[in-house]
Structure formats: C-alpha cells, structure tokens
Amino acid sequence: MLGDEDMAWLVLVLAGLFEVVWAFAMKKSEGFTLLTPSVITIVFMLLSFALLSWAMKSLPLGTAYTVWTGIGAVGSFIVGIVILQEPVNAMRMLAAVMIVAGLVLMKIASP
C-alpha cells in the first residue's frame, strides 16, 4: 500500500499530466472559440487544480507547486515538439533538461 506522502506524489504527477492536457486543449481551442477543446481545457484545468490542492495537504507548497509547473512545462514542451511540430534546438533541449534536473533536486531536497 502507498503511504500518504507516496499517494500525494502520485496525485501530484497526475495533476501535472492533466496540466499538459489542458494546455494542449487550450492551444487547440483557438482562443476558446472551439467548443470541444474549450470544454476539455476547463475540465482538465479544474481536475489539475483539485489534484494539486489535494497533494498540497501532504507536500510543502514550494515543492508541490514547483513540481506541478515543471511537469506541465516539460510535458507541454514535449507535446509541442511531438504533436504540434514546434522547433527543436540545442538551447530549448538544454532548458528542458535543466527543468527536469530542478524537479529531481526539488524531490530529493523535500522533507
């Protein structure tokens, strides 16, 4: 069985993945002018925030928020490259690697 803190980390990762979903759907909504991606954006935004809030009951604010935004940032970066064919260059890849390194350090440094 997972302990409370382990469950909080699992929920936090899920919240971060939901952030990627809503960011992608928001891009596809064309400024909230298309119904389906607009609804997906709002639903996954609410789910992501709710899960983040739940994880924050057990995890420190700074750690939870940093990890949540980092997963969203790197996940959206990957979705942009893979699905939206956004440009890839060494500087963008280095930035993504540095974000991931920061997330790992934040996890290691968390009480």
Question: What can you see in these coordinates?
Answer:
The protein has about 110 residues and is an all-alpha fold. It has one domain (about 5-110). The protein is built from 4 helices and no strands. It has helices spanning about 5-30, 35-55, 60-80, 90-110. α1 runs antiparallel to α2 (about 35-55), α1 packs across α3 and α3 (about 60-80) packs antiparallel against α4. It is flat, with a radius of gyration of 15 Å. The mean pLDDT is about 95. One of its GO terms (biological process) is xenobiotic detoxification by transmembrane export across the plasma membrane. Keywords: Cell membrane, Membrane, Transmembrane, Transmembrane helix, Transport. It comes from Acinetobacter brisouii CIP 110357. Belongs to the drug/metabolite transporter (DMT) superfamily. Small multidrug resistance (SMR) (TC 2.A.7.1) family. Gdx/SugE subfamily. Its main location: membrane.
List keywords for this structure.
111 residues; mainly alpha; 4 helices; 79% helix; 0% strand; flat
What secondary-structure arrangement, pairings included, does this model have?
Layout: H1 4-28, H2 35-55, H3 61-82, H4 90-109
Helix pairs in contact: 1-2, 1-3, 3-4
